[in-house]
Amino acid sequence: MFLPVPDHGDDGEEQPVTPWQLPETFPSTSGEVRWGRLGDSGQDPVVLLHGTPFSSYVWRGVARALARHHQVFVWDMPGYGASEKAAGQDVSLAAQGTVFTELLAYWGLDEPSVVAHDFGGAVSLRAHLLHGARYRALALVDPVALAPWGSPFFRLVGEHAEVFERLPPALHHALVREYVTSASSPGLHPAVLERLVEPWLGDLGQAAFYRQIAQADQRHTDEVQGRYGEIGCPVLVCWGEDDAWIPVAKGRELAAAVPGARLEPIAGAGHLVQEDASAELTALLADFLQRQS
User: Fold this and answer.
1) Which of 91, 75, 71 is nearest to 30 (CA)?
2) Contact, 104 vs 228, CB < 8 A?
3) Contacts of 156 by beta carbon, 8 Å cutoff, 6+ apart
4) Where in 220-275 does DSSP place strands (E)?
5) Rounded distance, CA 110 to CA 100, Å?
C-alpha cells in the first residue's frame, strides 16, 4: 500500500489537504508498529528512521521527494507517533534495534539504503553492528551515536520521570511544546509544531513521552561506539550547524570514526534538519543515494 503525503502549494508551503498516515501494521516484539511505503516496488529501497521525540511525520517531504526514484519505507517506532503506546512497554534503544531488524525481515529487504535521524541513528547502528542488518548505504542525520549525549533537561526528566508523568495536562503540553521547539534553529511552523506534539498528549501520550526518556540509556550506544570502524558501506553524515541538542563537533568526530564517511554540515539548521533545511537535506540525500545505484 502506498502512503499519502501532504500536498504543497506553489510556494512550497504545506497545505493540510492530505494528512500523513501510516496505513500498515506490524506486530513487533515491542508492540504494534504503524508503517507505510511510497514509490514503485521495483525501485531501490530506502528506509527512513525518525528520532525522539518525533515520528515519521518529520520525513514527509523528504520521503515524497525520494520516492520519485526509490521505494521508500517509513515507520513509527513502538511508543512513538501512531504506533502502540502501552504501560510497561520496552521502547529502549536495544528494543528498537531489534524491532528494526524484525521489520527489515518482514519487508524482505536484504540490503536497503538507510537514512536515520537522532535516536534512529543509534537504532540503525545497533541493527547493523549487533544484529547483522546489511545496508547498501547509510546516511546519518544529527544522530545519537557518541557519548556523552542527552541535554540537561533530558537527563533531569530521565531521573524523575515518575514525577513529570504526573504533571497537569496543560503544563505537560507546554513543556513538550518548548522542548520540541528547541530542536529547530529558525523556528517551527505552528501547525507543524502542534502535529509533532500531538502524539504525546492525553493519558497514553503523556505517559509514553516520559517512558521513552526514562529508558534512554547511554550504554546502548557505548555497546557499539567502539565498532564504528567496522562499518563497510558508504556513509554520509549530515549535521545542522546550529544544532543545540548535539553540537556539530560530534558530527566531525563521528565522520572520523567511520571509514570513508563524508560529513556535510548544513548552515542555518538546528537539530531538526528536516524542518529547518528540507531542500538542502533532500538534495544531499538524493545525490548520495544516486551514487550508490
Assistant:
1) 91
2) no
3) none
4) 235-240, 262-266
5) 13
